[in-house]
Amino acid sequence: MSSSYWPRTGKSYRIPGTPLPPQAGAPMVLSLFYFSWWTLAIAFAVCAIFGYASYKNRTILWALRRLRSKMRSGVIAARPRFYRQRFTFDQQLGDIDFRVRGKK
C-alpha cells in the first residue's frame, strides 16, 4: 500500500524564510525591473500589510470577503426583497382593530 500523493495540499505556500505569501513578492519583483522610489515604497508597504495579516492569521481571500461584506453593509437577507415586502404593513399596528379584522 502506497502513501498519499497529496500529503501537503492543505499547507499554504510562503516565501522561503519569511511568513509572507507569494503574492507579497510581486511588487518586489516589479521594483527590480522598474526601479523607482515609489515602487520600492509600495513594495515595502505591501510586504508590511501582508506581514501584519500573516501575524493575525488572515489571508487574501479573507480580506476580499471582508471588503465585500463591508460594501453590502454586512447583512445578507435570508429572503429576497419581494418576499419580505409582502409582509410589510402600510399602516401602523396601533391603527388596526384586530377584533374586527379577519372575521366574516
TrEMBL record:
The chain crosses the membrane at residues 35-55. Keywords: Membrane, Transmembrane, Transmembrane helix. It comes from the Bacteria. It comes from Variovorax ginsengisoli. This is IcmT/TraK family protein. InterPro entries: IcmT-like (IPR047756).
